[in-house]
Design goal:
Keywords: Membrane, Transmembrane, Transmembrane helix. This protein has 127 residues and is of the alpha+beta class. The protein has a single domain, classed as Jelly Rolls. It has one helix and nine strands, in the order βββββββββα. The chain starts with a strand and ends with a helix.
Amino acid sequence: MRTTIAPAGQRTEIYKIRQGSIPMHFDFTVEPVEDGAKLSGVLEVTSSAWIIPQAPQRLPLQARHQVKRGMFNTFFTLAVIPDVEVRVAPVRDDEGGGSGKIFVLVLGLLIGLILAMAIGMFFLGGR
């Protein structure tokens, strides 16, 4: 996700993925471009359970959002429909988020452990 300017009254996709099953965590801020403007609008979260579409979630637009993409949400889209022009910016990993990276790290360590055990059993099991 990168910083995006979303025009007032228009649906703007800020993140879209069409494949994958790795859980992810999205942490981003939304602020009006014009000073003094009041933040309002909708965050639309569209997902599917594998290939079965789920009803979109429509949440009130807030200054900061934290959205989780589940294990089997194969098709996933985040979009904003603001009432005023807004800037949507991701929060850096050192400020929050990053759960997808942790999942990949743990999964990699687990696969490495299983491979090490299999290799050990292959070479040492026959003696």
